[in-house]
Structures are given as C-alpha cells and as structure tokens.
Amino acid sequence: MSAGTYTPKPGAAPLTRMIAAQAAFETKMLLRNGEQLLLTVIIPSLLLVLFSTVDIVDTGEGRAVDFLTPGVLALAVMSTAFTGQAIATGFERRYGVLKRLGASPVPRWALMAAKTLSVLVTEVLQIALLTAIAFALGWSPHGDPVSVLLLLVLGTAAFSGLGLLMAGTLKAEVTLAAANLVFLLLLVGGGVIVPLDKFPGGVASALGLLPISALSDGLRDVLQHGAGMPWGNLGILALWAVLGLGAAARTFRWE
Amino acid sequence: MLSEPAVRIRGLVKRYGPKAAVDGLDLDVVTGSVTSVLGPNGAGKTTTIETCEGYRRADAGTVRVLGLDPVADAARLRPRIGVMLQSGGVYSGARADEMLRHMARLHAHPLDVDALIERLGLGSCGRTTYRRLSGGQQQRLALAMAVVGRPELVFLDEPTAGLDPQARRATWDLVRELREDGVTTVLTTHFMDEAEELSDDVAIIDGGRVIARGSTEELCRGGAENTLSFTGRPGLDLGSLLKALPDGSAAAELTPGAYRITGEVDPQLLATVTSWCAQHGVLPHGISVERHTLEDVFLELTGKELRA
User: Fold this and answer.
1) Touching B: A residues 218-247, CB under 8 Å
2) d(Cα B67, Cα B63) in Å, to the nearest integer?
C-alpha cells in the first residue's frame, strides 16, 4: 500500500446502509449456524410432517394439519425471536462483539433495530417454508390475514424482549442451556402440538397465559376456526412484550 | 501554532468498588504522534484507554478525545476513532475477510479491504471462521478492523501480545505507516522494545497515575545513571581522572585494569576520558558505553515485585 493510504478520512456510512448491512450480516451468521438451523427450521418442519401424518397426538376435531400448522408457526416465531436471538446475543456479548460494535459508527439503538430486522427476515423464510410444507400436507387456512400478522408481530416482540432479557443479564453458557430448556418446555406445555385442554383445568388456564400459548391459540382460532380479531391473546402478548422489552432495556449489559 | 492534543486527560479517576483503578491521571497525546502507555498488570492502562473509547464513565476528572467528550459526544466521536480491543470483538462464526468487509461497510470512506488483507497477511485465513484462527491471526484481524474506517486516532490495546516476531514486525510497520500518514496512535504494551521502536512519547503508569513520561531518549537519560567501561594498565590514578570529570561522576577499578565510570555519560565525557588517557600514555581498549534501556527505567520506577 502506498504513501497516503491511511490518511484519515473518517465518516459513518449512511444510517440505513449500516442497519441493512448489520441485519444482513447477522442473518448470514444465523443461517450458517447448525444448531440454530436445527431449532428454527428442522425441528418445526419435522414436527409438522410427523404429527400430521402419523396419529400420535390426539389433536381433537378436524384434520391434524389444520390443528398443527398454527402451533408450529408459533413455535417457529419462538425459536427465532426467543431461543435463537437469546443464544446468539448472549455469545456476541461474551465474545466482545457487542462491545466492539459499540465503538463502531453504528448507534446502539441501530444495532438493536438490525437485530429485529434480522429476526423478521428469518421468520419470513421460516413461515414461507412451513406454510409450503403445510399446503403440501393439505392444510386449508381460514381467517383474516391482518389478525395473523398482528399476532406474529406481537409474538415476536414478546419473545424478543424475553430473549434479550436473558442474553443481556446471564452468562452465555447459562443462556444457552436455559433458552433450550425453555424452548423444550414450552414446546410441550404451550399448546403447540398438545392441545391445552389435555391438561387439568387449573393448569390449562395458567398455561394459557404463556406467550407461546397465546400465540399458538390465537393463530389457531383464526387459521383453523376462522375467528375474528383474537383480542384476548393479543392482549396477553402485548403485556409480555411491554414487560419483557422494558426489563431488557433496563438491565441489558453490553459487556 | 500547536494543534490541540488528540487526547487530553486531566485528573481522571475511575473506581471499581472501593478500589481506584485510575487515580488522578493526567495525559496529553500529541496529534500525529505514537504514544505508548506502559505499566505493570493492573496499573490502569486498559481502564484509561477504555475511558477514552467511551466504554467507561469517569468518576472524576475530564477526558477529551479529538476535543470531544467520549460519552456525551459518542455519536460524533466513534466514526473518527479506530479501536482494537485486547481480545475478541468478532462473531465466532465469521471469516476474517467477511468481518473486515462488514466493518468497512459501516464507514463512509473505508480502506481497500483486499489491499488491507494482503498487507496484514490475512489472506491465508481463507474460509476459516474466527474461533479457529490462530491467536496471531485474530490479533491482526482486530488491528485491521481498527484501521479500516480511516480513523484520525487509533487505540491499540496490546496489539502484539501473542504474536510471533514476523507478525510483530508487520504490526510495527503498519503503526509507522499510520504515523507517516498523519494518524495518531495510542497503544498499550508490555514490550519495552516495542515502545522504544515505535513511540514518540512514552507514559509509564502505575497505581492509576502517570509516574513518568517523555520520549524514550528523555526517560533513559533522566533518573538512571549510565556507565562507561574500558580496560587499560592496572593502577591508574583515578583521583586525577575524577578531577577531569564533571561533578557527580564516579570511577572505580573493578578488577586490575578494568575500569568503570558512572555518571551522565555523554559525548563530552567520553572525549574527556580518552584525552585524559592520551595525556597519561594509556591506550584504553574495549571501551563500551552502556545506556540504560527503557526496561531498566521501567523496573526502577515500578519495582520488581510481581503484580496481579
């Protein structure tokens, strides 16, 4: 490199370019990670195919695929916005990535915006794949797309808040273990593949307050039964979103 | 007119719990210079640097970097500085080239990434992801990330720790090129030869304060004494020799015929000794002047006991 190569010429890239570049980079890192793909793509797809075609779980009235698809979509949102984001962010914190980027021209709020964008892009890819599989299995959805979109957005916000709360306060290894455990527990107890009415009454109503149950139940009401705007479930998700994001914002540690 | 210092620290205090990591530290960094911050482990080097980078908020005192407050004016300051952390800072699944390209995209006028990869020998990293790179490769990537945005000022926290001699030289060359092109560099190091090779200015920190500062030349001249040794015939009249030497000098015959003069050894003193020898018909041989190295000065100032 010749003389003058390093002559200072500092400057931040335009904000939109920084956010787009950051979101694209994080999405690429996520899609490259084998364990993340297992959670976000392989497990939801397998559950959908397996339980739709083999009669293992009693899914109540109607065809299994119509019951399962909304639950698996909810699971996909949780796997990316909560589990995946918590683990990735926890390790970014542990390895000083957040610290280093904190000294780059990207403002911290823009780093968070890029994370959200990356989560949304991943979800779009997941939903495209899962709905294609569901249609191939004979899925016939009903209902208002606006309600579905609202549920997905609020669900993403609720799970992101909880994921970032975990990633910003716990050690990366603890986050890794806890996020996977929570994923498993909510997969079983959140109305994803096992209908909540299989649980005793008191337990079922408590489980119904979980974000995963609110999301899967809301999606099922709309997509399987063609119900109107599921205000109750939207309310539960909104509350989780406010609590989770609020707590994360107050406690998040960058190093 | 002298330009404003690139970094100006006055009375910096930073506490972690009851312990002050930095305790009333003053430091100026001249624009365009290379300044090395030396000190034993736990002396407060990294805390000082990280306060300049905006990571730590000062408990007392003022810090101005490029005339800006690193915390309050962070948004304006960050694009203008380059940062190399002591370790980490890269996505564990990222390849060296793509991480560097990503950092470049965050800046308005970045360096040519391919040329920088070539320059720092990062091409050999190929498709290996960060967590599998060698320590030296990780260090060089972090250095490249610090300079890719064409900053005015770079902070390098132990840039050559764990590098092999070749990679150290390559890093030194880069720092020299940065200096030639007008970039200000602040670096911390444990290597005295590195500080001697690179710096215009050295600041020795201990106990959270600057205990000595100046050019290497100034630091080695002051404080410690230097020695001049020569061999001649035994039993020279040292009293007569001492009369010719400046006050504060000392002369001794260590073993018969082996002489040592201590004091401020400068060219004049050497000339005085040789001319005294000439007057007394002595042919001194094996004349050697031993100057104190920066390491001698460092150990004299900070003591020899081991630190945390």
Assistant:
1) none
2) 9
Integer Cα distance of B243 and B116 in angstroms: 60
* Separation of alpha carbons B165 and B168, rounded Å: 5
- The ipTM, to two decimals, is 0.89
**Distance between CA atoms of residues A9 and B110, nearest Å:** 8
Q: Can you tell me the distance from the alpha carbon of B114 to that of B33, in angstroms, rounded to the nearest whole number?
A: 27
Give the domain extent around B151.
7-221
How close B150 gets to chain A, by Cα (Å)? 5
Q: Domain for residue B49, yes or no?
A: yes
Confirm or reject contact between A108 and chain B (CB < 8 A).
no
* Residue B303 counted as domain residue: no
- Which residues of chain A neighbour B109 with C-beta distances below 8 Å? 9-11
User: Which residues of chain A are within 8 Å of residue B47 when distances are taken between CB atoms?
Assistant: none
pLDDT tens, chain A, 255 aa long: 667 899 999 999 999 999 999 999 999 999 998 888 999 999 999 999 999 888 777 777 788 999 999 999 999 999 999 999 999 999 999 999 999 999 999 999 999 999 999 999 999 999 999 999 999 999 999 999 999 999 999 999 999 999 999 999 999 999 999 999 999 999 999 989 888 888 898 899 999 999 999 999 999 999 999 999 999 999 999 999 999 999 999 999 988
CA distance A91 to chain B (A): 8
Q: Is B148 on the interface with A (CB under 8 A)?
A: no
Rounded to an integer, what distance in angstroms lies between the CA atom of residue B79 and that of residue A19?
15
**Domain endpoint, select from B221, B244, B277:** B221
Q: What total of structural domains would you count in chain B?
A: 2
Answer whether B22's CB lies under 8 Å from B13's CB.
yes
The CATH number of residue B265's host domain is 3.30.70
Q: What is the total residue count of chain B?
A: 308
CB contact under 8 A, B150 and A8: yes
Check whether residue B180 and residue B264 sit in a common domain. Answer: no
Question: Cα–Cα distance between B266 and B227 in angstroms, integer?
Answer: 10
Looking at the domain assignment, is residue B2 inside a domain? no
The string of DSSP codes covering B60-116 is: EEEEEETTB-TTTTHHHHGGGEEEE-SS--S-TT-BHHHHHHHHHHTBSS---HHHH
Closest partner CB to B152 (pick from A8, A96, A103): A8
Write out residues 87-116 of B within 8 Å (CB-CB) of A.
Answer: 87-94, 98, 102-103, 105-109, 111-112, 115-116
Among all residues of chain B, which has the CA nearest to that of A103?
A: B78
